[in-house]
Amino acid sequence: MRRVAVVGAGWAGLACAVETVSRGDSVTVFESARSTGGRARSVTGGDPLLDNGQHILIGAYVETLALTRKVGADPETLLHRQPLSLQFADGGGLSLPPGPALPALLRGVVTAAGWSWLDKVALLRVATGWRLRGFRCDPGLTVAALCRGLPARVIDELVEPLCVSALNTPIEAASAEVFLRVLRDALLSTAGGSDLLLPRTDLDSLLPTPATAWLNARAATIRVGHRVTQLEADGKGWKVDGQSFDRVVLACPPGEAARLASMAAPRNTDWPAACRALRFEPVATVYAQADRGLAQAMLALRCAPGAPAQFVFDRGRLGGPAGLLAFVVSASRDERNSLEAGVREQARQQLGLETRPIATLVDKRATFACTPGLRRPGRQIASGLLACGDYIEGPYPATLEGAVRSGLAAARET
Q: Are strands 26-31 and 42-43 parallel, antiparallel or unpaired?
């Protein structure tokens, strides 16, 4: 039995710890916060209990769904599944029917409300070209350049919402290469791969709480409120704050990982430099109370200056209090007061609702900016010292699935 330290208890760290224990090794998890879950967790102490953001899963998140089942959570109960829908309150936008991936996409495009036949034919022509090229493109291309020539309505009601929800990066700066990979794996992989999975419960109940309980039941040690201050080589292993381990996995944010890597492996200057070179995009969530809910669990919103949110979720339809809405502002740059004022006006004009903001949560470093040619840090730092997280080199943008897959991969290499 090897002794493995996992520094960080976000979704990547929890995935790494669970997989490491499953392989028969002893695990100690160090987490600087007072709770597990990282950036996808509940915000404690509030009434109602709120999450630090409105995270969305999709049917193609096979590793994340498998992990939740493994630790005793039931995604079929905890998640509301529906076919991909980017519909607006006025009925416009794209909505896919259930069924096999390609026929569902074709039917969704053909029946898209508010789109002209020129819009639909243009999208099908361009998408066919992407498919014939194997969903590959010049790595230096942006999503805006990739979609040049598509009608404005298709860009506004399909490309931009998909890009900002998946990559959290504006289309003018987002990587077309990663965008196409997401489209391929989500929209055209398997039946149900593009389905939206919306949490019916708080995020803690989806993974952090059951994973923590699962690890505790198997004699793993979880030290919350413990920020690692010392990491150094110790013969054939490592010492974490004076405690000896055979392997160490850094599952903490890139800035913290760069600090520890510089301390532990000072000769490897490239790895912390790659962490520090990452740029980040914020996500804001404005929770607001309305006198009634929405017609469905999620609606797209038309985003413009003074109208900052791209999506709104009806938490009342997802197990929360009636009339509680969550407005999501990806790549947000506005101040809190401007966000709340803009959301209230959006709700009034686009939803016909009067709302009262009750909490605005802003994660300024929610995801890395997924730009063309981005160089992300690799998994290996030094012998016996690895890293995992949604920012580590991999095929996907900063998503829960990317974090879980990275954690599993690090565990299998220790």
A: unpaired
Q: What is the DSSP letter of 378?
A: P
- Specify the amino acid at residue 8: G
Instruction: Specify the DSSP element, H or E, that contains 408.
Output: helix 400-413
Q: How far apart are the first and last CA of the chain?
A: 12
| Same domain flag for 407 and 271 | yes
Residue 312: which domain range? 280-368
Domain co-membership, 28 together with 141: no
pTM of the model: 0.95
Q: What single-letter DSSP state applies at residue 412?
A: H
One domain, residues 408 and 343: no
Q: Which residues contact 49 (CB under 8 A, 6 or more apart)?
A: 42, 43, 202
What is the pLDDT at residue 48?
77
Cα distance between residue 233 and residue 265, in whole Å: 8
Question: Which residue is associated with the tokens 């149900």?
Answer: 192
pLDDT of res. 380: 97
Q: How does DSSP classify residue 389?
A: S
Question: Cα–Cα distance between 36 and 11 in angstroms, integer?
Answer: 8
The 10 Å Cβ neighbour count of residue 259 is 19
